[in-house]
């Protein structure tokens, strides 16, 4: 047994290595076969197939093996856009080149894309007729392909990407702009164009927050063909037959059931329409909607509702949004993560209500809380958005190019007001009275005007403090007391600039805004005789801000006007809030031209009303400037407290108990005379750059900025 065991053991070790060697060879062979198969499959799958052109067209062949799927999500204007191609342009306008039309076919001679659609042809025509267009490819800043990718349903994805890559200036899509309105396809319907586009900018209709490259792509509307086919006359704002209306077809069953439950709960004020199934032959289904057996004309029926629901479908972007805006119906947008069209510049809060999908059952109560006055403003704004940016492919194309242009030339960008205000109130770009293309020179300085009655001690302190401001050029005291002479010349503070005292014939608040001949500077600082807390740094900084915005009121005490829903009228608010719509002229810079307008061109009887009530001259000036320029005020520095420490209710006008009530009456009176509410609410304040920084005070330009 031992011998047998020994014999077995001596053979065993020799047998085992031979078995391992056989297995090793077997596995290596098997692995090699699998590896070669994978390599062959990969080469076949990903090897670039060039698109051959027909004999009628000359096409440059180029490999697209480095084009990623869809776009580079990390792209931003400073990383993927070559601004140096735009160069210097005295008109601050980008130049756009459109590639010439070419026919692209695959290796079998089959056309890669269909004939250019009517919509894309209109878009290219609009660009070629605009001031952005250039036919010189070497001068171009932006390139637009003549390849129509508006509708992904009509595209062969891979071949279209190869055609784009053959464009002579493609360079991974740098400085190229693609327009797409219907992205994605079944079953997942991606929210951005599936065609590989690398660095190309995408003007897309239906972006989500996941696919939208902020500040790089442009979210555009999905164009509605009905815009060019149906003429809906503008309907004035006000109550309508239905409160909520839904006109979309082919909705998700869950959405429709929730809306039908809403209709059952609220009766005839909610109308849920659907596709018609009993139409006569020849009647276009796209122009009709039905509810039970009742047939409605579409889109005319949209004008019968106050709010119109815009729900997400298979795609986030829906053409019905354009139809709703055209009808002047306030869109209720229920599409989570949807990037609204042109949201980079358009303030959709002024024209729509956005409700999360999970809040759909609460929609009725949410909309009921919107005040009627706000609804009417939103109806007007909705129609204006359609007229300006939705009504045609031309409007969509030019708005897109203007947004890109504003990114390239931000110092010449269109303002918020120009993008969002209808022509009736868009004064800033048309009737601005100052015509100041340049910043007023700092050397000219400003004239300080102090209105006073008999608070001599406080007046002298104000003069002393204001005289410390480096840019002060002259100080003008308006003595408004006819029963008392001003102090003798020897008693006045000795200051480095000319001091002039003007005596008035009557005690009127409007005297502070008279265009005195002594005002030789463009800038005026109106300041009360009890504003002793402002430092010279704060005043100097305010003047520097005014030089940047010489057509606005730039001041320190901020105030707000609010709509009182219970009383159904405007209300004056002096509490500290995040918003401001006025700055009090007890301490404010403005252009001297507004003194002339206040004295000689103030609408109606406002000037006499102010003098009779001895109140609200500052509110009247805010109304005047806002109405003429269409712009908001600018509040500077964080200071909020402006009460004179020595003032009491006896000599402090603003401390009177009836003062606040009367100021609210002023706002309603002025709004009635102007026929509109010109004041604009903003959440903005200007502070010095290093105001809050932990930085040596001696290195700050304005170190002495008060916290309150």
UniProtKB/TrEMBL annotation:
It catalyses: 3-O-{[(1->4)-beta-D-GlcA-(1->4)-alpha-D-GlcNAc](n)-(1->4)-beta-D-GlcA-(1->3)-beta-D-Gal-(1->3)-beta-D-Gal-(1->4)-beta-D-Xyl}-L-seryl-[protein] + UDP-N-acetyl-alpha-D-glucosamine = 3-O-{alpha-D-GlcNAc-[(1->4)-beta-D-GlcA-(1->4)-alpha-D-GlcNAc](n)-(1->4)-beta-D-GlcA-(1->3)-beta-D-Gal-(1->3)-beta-D-Gal-(1->4)-beta-D-Xyl}-L-seryl-[protein] + UDP + H(+). Residues 91-370 form the Exostosin GT47 domain. The keyword Endoplasmic reticulum applies. The keyword Acetylation does not apply. Pathway: Protein modification; protein glycosylation. It is a single-pass type II membrane protein. It is found in: Endoplasmic reticulum membrane; Golgi apparatus, cis-Golgi network membrane. Glycosyltransferase forming with EXT1 the heterodimeric heparan sulfate polymerase which catalyzes the elongation of the heparan sulfate glycan backbone. Glycan backbone extension consists in the alternating transfer of (1->4)-beta-D-GlcA and (1->4)-alpha-D-GlcNAc residues from their respective UDP-sugar donors. This is Exostosin-2. It comes from Cariama cristata (Red-legged seriema).
